[in-house]
């Protein structure tokens, strides 16, 4: 089935065109849709095969990055969104979009706790600065997210964020995330570097070097890095100095997600 991808727009979201290009190169038909078009009923989420919440500075990062857009989404579109997720359709939140999914309680989800209190959050980088650099990511082989799991090699993608550090309520949460396969992606050292990982390979100080999480169903993925900005060979910082590539590494993730959505 052909995949229509809804790229969510909202005040302060600024990587929607990049996300649209990535979806298009991956074989989907992207449509950039403002949250008000969905809330007003002019467009229905249910008519799409996948949802992308792009990066940016939604609502100026007020009250914490992603917080206000999360509240807006839950209040105006909560039901449609929950149905979309329950249907198993892919939802990808990138950077600010990841922050939105976490603050909305969609990621990592309930962790099977009786009170379902959020045990995971994203907060200020350990460096206390905005981090804008290229990093290397690897999939957690035990993740429940099929489009992350199918990344069979480390990939190079950029990050650009101030609040990307994953913090957990306690150590038991890390064990739970691991045991339930909710850790999708991790920062790793540069390809060919066998040093132990630390800053800046882990750009924000995330516990367990976590770069991306998924839900228990595996169809909702959030990640801090920007795979949509690593889809063309020329986007790589060393593209003139290294052997020519056919495409950027980030495209793998989009292709996996589009293929998954097409098979539903
Ligand atoms: N590139 C982004 O999406 C940035 C997210 C958010 N505004 C932050 O600084 O953490």
Automatic annotation (TrEMBL):
Location in the cell: Cytoplasm
Gene3D superfamilies attached to this UniProt entry: 3.40.50.880
Biological pathway: Purine metabolism; IMP biosynthesis via de novo pathway; 5-amino-1-(5-phospho-D-ribosyl)imidazole from N(2)-formyl-N(1)-(5-phospho-D-ribosyl)glycinamide: step 1/2
PROSITE patterns noted in UniProt: GATASE_TYPE_1
Domain of life: Bacteria
GO molecular function (one): phosphoribosylformylglycinamidine synthase activity
Principal subcellular localization: cytoplasm
Protein EC: 6.3.5.3, 3.5.1.2
Catalytic residue list: 95, 226, 228
Catalytic activity line of the entry: L-glutamine + H2O = L-glutamate + NH4(+); N(2)-formyl-N(1)-(5-phospho-beta-D-ribosyl)glycinamide + L-glutamine + ATP + H2O = 2-formamido-N(1)-(5-O-phospho-beta-D-ribosyl)acetamidine + L-glutamate + ADP + phosphate + H(+)
Annotated keywords: ATP-binding, Cytoplasm, Glutamine amidotransferase, Hydrolase, Ligase, Nucleotide-binding, Purine biosynthesis
Pfam families: GATase_5 (PF13507)
Function: Part of the phosphoribosylformylglycinamidine synthase complex involved in the purines biosynthetic pathway. Catalyzes the ATP-dependent conversion of formylglycinamide ribonucleotide (FGAR) and glutamine to yield formylglycinamidine ribonucleotide (FGAM) and glutamate. The FGAM synthase complex is composed of three subunits. PurQ produces an ammonia molecule by converting glutamine to glutamate. PurL transfers the ammonia molecule to FGAR to form FGAM in an ATP-dependent manner.
Entry-linked HAMAP family: PurQ
Subunit text: Part of the FGAM synthase complex composed of 1 PurL, 1 PurQ and 2 PurS subunits.
Designated name of the protein: Phosphoribosylformylglycinamidine synthase subunit PurQ
Organism, scientific name: Candidatus Chloroploca mongolica
Gene that this sequence comes from: purQ
